[in-house]
Amino acid sequence: MAPINDVTDFSVENGIGILSLDSPPVNALSSAVRTGLLEGIQAAEADASVRAVVLICRGRTFIAGADITEFGGAAKGASLSAVQDAIENSSKPVVAAIHGTALGGGLEVALCCHYRVAVPSARCGLPEVNLGLLPGAGGTQRLPRIVGVEKALEMVTGGQHVPAPTCLELGLVDELASEDDLQASAIAFAEGVLAEGRPLRKVRESDDKLEASRGKPEIFEKFRAGIARRTRGFLAPEYNVRCIEAAVNSESFEAGLAVEQDLFRKLLTGPQSLAQRHVFFAERQIWKLPDVPRETPTIEVQKVGIIGAGTMGGGIAMNFANVGLPVTLVETSQEALDRGLGVIRANYERTASRGRITAEDVEARTGLITGTLAMEDLGDVDLVIEAVFESMPLKKEIFARLDGIAKPGAILASNTSALDINEIAQSTERPEAVIGLHFFSPANVMKLVEVVRGEATSDAVIATSMGLSKRIGKNAALVGVCPGFVGNRILAARQAQANRLVMEGAMPWDVDRVLFDFGLPMGPFAMSDLAGLDIGWNKAESRGETVRDVLCEMDRRGQKTSAGYYDYDAHRKASPSPVVEKVIREFAARGGNSARAMSDEEILERCVYPMINEGVKILDEGMAIRASDVDVIWISGYGWPVYRGGPMFYAEQVGLERVLARLQELQKEYGDAFAPAPLLEKMVAEGSSFRDLGF
Ligand code: CAA
Q: Is 232 left (phi over 0), alpha (psi -120 to 50) or beta?
């Protein structure tokens, strides 16, 4: 084995050159990898004894793409296009041997090889769209030449990792290799190519698959319409479509490539990709806990108990059943239990009817969830999650009882969205076992769990909760105990401002439209209507003190009563309500507020800047570990647009100085609700970023 550089080796076995890469963790195309690849191909070309080349990777995966950490830096080493040209123009057949994932630039390198073999467990894809990018190394030009236009459109805009057996059907892969000995399979394949005198196949030269789509712009229009809802606000999906269009309509491969490169550069230097790359790393950072050592022993969770079979409890139970963990679901009445189990079954059946799981999956998963009316049945579970309604006395009573039932070492978690975990923990003799696991509704769908650490929570309980959240496919953020924790505390700051805005002249639908256009799935008033205006409202005590009280008193309690802030038709389509407008205007007039016109910019700033301000206070108090955790919370739990990177990233994009100046103006005008966080003032005075301060 002769090293080419630190990350590449070249050796020759019976006339087959083995060019191998070993650049952990994912063999990304760093400058060293690119240089090593180029020199390896040149070595093979120069060595007369080499008849064919196998390109193979060591470690967990084939090349997983460009090295994202190098984006934005000065170009160093061999260029990717030089590597690709050298491979494609090699006078000897080059075979890519794929295991793990061949993604992005990695697949684009493989597509320049004359042939590709892959182990059955491998997956290939062009996921650049998830980073706000497009495959910028010829991927959009080569892929449709192999898999056809429709499939290519789906792959580049969806970013899926396609399993090797499907790749074989699509022609992306030429042969499935032995799972246990990829190198031997690839060498045998190369020998076969030589023996049969198969050609040095260049994907760029084959146009047949494009022919079928020429002169048919409707293919692209239909596709665009199909993804419009899912990709609203994102630039990259549209740019990917344009590249495939260019592959079909350009006179030559090079002309299509020029379009791809131009659009790639635009995305790479634009704000959306910057934000999406930030989110990529943020989602990987959240698992790193500065004061809980990586090697902390975890508790083995083989069985889960859930108290409360309502919407939250049922949704939470599904997460565990989905990964094969048995769940005991406790309710207080048979009727509530039957209803809860029925909803779970209906949810699974709906998923099956959409083809996402099989009928057998429905049975297997519902079969893992056992209902009971006896809390004593939780004696053998390793984790209990309490998901009853938000009442501190009730939760304390449940935890005190649980303390006598749960086995030693079991984790006792509460799904509370706001209550004090420390107070709940005090009702047990084992506060170190108590933690908050705050799921977001619908809990079987939303990707976030806030893992709320109490004063006494042990490291093992924290580490286990984080690991388990990962296992059920969630993003988990470790947060501290404060009212609303991180996500809802920031939401409350926004809601307070949204309520004030409507007193000053904006209507709920104006506020909602501005936030929807910003990229959120819905604004605060549409959200209230969806959740129900009567959450936390008490009919007996209601005295019409807020607009919400008045609407509830009028039985406008949200979508469920076909009326809330909006009027709803039979299809739940919302329209602005003249009744609500009248209520708001009268309410505002009573409070001495006269309605005035308000710009969209003002609405946006008044909703979003207090969120940022609250986020900064949260960081200063140590309630979140880092600014990017706050971003992940708001993206995964509340649908903050990924292409804006989360509220804290957005703050730095806007400029902390500008945010501070505007908050100061607003404070003068509207009072201390806008008082800037001292940390924000400090950061602006010092010119420091969240990262500079270790946030
Ligand atoms: N560049 C740099 N670092 C990368 C990377 C990349 N392309 N892909 C992953 N990493 C890093 C991660 O940040 C992580 O680092 P830490 O351990 O320090 O947090 C580490 O590799 C392991 O990653 P994961 O935790 O994600 O590991 P996994 O096993 O769960 O998943 C993976 C592996 C499927 C490859 C996943 O990391 C992934 O999807 N990576 C991104 C793939 C991608 O988007 N490729 C396209 C890049 S853009 C491109 O290629 C453009 C072009 O054509 C020029």
A: beta
CATH 3.40.50.300 fits 304-485, yes or no: no
Token digits of residue 546: 């807020």
Q: Which residues are catalytic?
A: 108, 128
Q: Output the CATH code of domain 2-267.
A: 3.90.226.10
Token pair for 127: 């996921």
Q: What is the pLDDT of residue 694?
A: 85
Give me ligand 1 centre to Cα 196, in Å: 38
Lining ligand 1 with CB less than 6 A are: 25-26, 28, 61, 64-69, 101, 103-105, 108, 127-128, 131, 133, 135-137, 281, 284
* DSSP-H helix ranges across 48-104: 80-88
Handedness of CA 446, 455, 406, 398 (dihedral sign): negative
C-alpha 64 – ligand 1 centre gap (Å) = 6
Q: Which residues touch 215 (CB under 8 Å, ≥6 apart)?
A: none
Confidence (pLDDT) at 544: 86
Q: Are the beta carbons of 558 and 531 closer than 8 angstroms?
A: yes
Token reading at 120:
């059955």
Query: Could you report the per-residue pLDDT of 613-653, keeping only the tens digit for each?
Result: 999 999 999 999 999 999 999 999 999 999 999 999 999 99
- pLDDT tens-digit series, residues 204-227: 999 999 999 999 999 999 999 999
Give counts: helices (H), strands (E), the chain.
Answer: 28, 20
Tell me the two tokens of residue 588: 């505002």
Residue 328 to residue 341: CA distance in whole angstroms: 11
Query: Could you say which architecture CATH assigns to the domain 600-686?
Result: Orthogonal Bundle (1.10)
